[in-house]
Amino acid sequence: MFYHGIMLDEHHELHNREMHISGKFVLCHDDQIHDQIKLDDREKQIVELLREEADLMRKEMAERLECSDSTIKRTLQSMVEKGAIKRIGSNKKGEWIILEGK
What's the pTM value of the predicted model, to 2 decimals? Predict the structure, then answer.
């Protein structure tokens, strides 16, 4: 379809503008994120888990950190609001990106 659009000068709207790329998305070093964005101990533990496995599910995080799924959900939301992490992709197939602190 892409080449067809180029050859015949057709215009098709792109519906999925994000490409899924597997792998770890780490954009800064540990010290940068911890110094520039104030993270509590649980948030730091989550950062470490995500460095090991970017597509880790909340349930698995809760098991590893020995807390509830709702606690992980609240903590992840807090980290998103602080600008420490961002979700790319769907809830089932997506991955977390650890962002550089601002």
Answer: 0.63
